[in-house]
Write a structure and sequence with these properties.
5 helices
Length: 115
Amino acid sequence: MKQIVADPELVAYCGLYCGACPRYLKDRCPGCHENSKATWCKIRSCCIEHGYASCADCEEFTDPHDCRKFHNLFSRAIGFVLRSDRRACVYQIRERGREEHAAAMAELGRPSIRP
């Protein structure tokens, strides 16, 4: 099993930190940026289309919850079940940058900030 390390390349388009995800750590997922099979993810597609490293780069929506791709019924349900706050992750990336976000998530050992 992989070790959790701080790597800004493992920050997903939605703000989650793949470097602390159990699936990534067990080699069951290559991480968001490398997962060419994740064509179903509208956030990933949008960020790739606009050349964003993550939703934190988006200038159209200052609040990610205003974006229908980011904040929809499915994402709210998953966030509730997994106790995940992607919005807080996006704000942390905007405030601190991807490197510090990756370091903070690696230190916590979690893919997301808890609500």
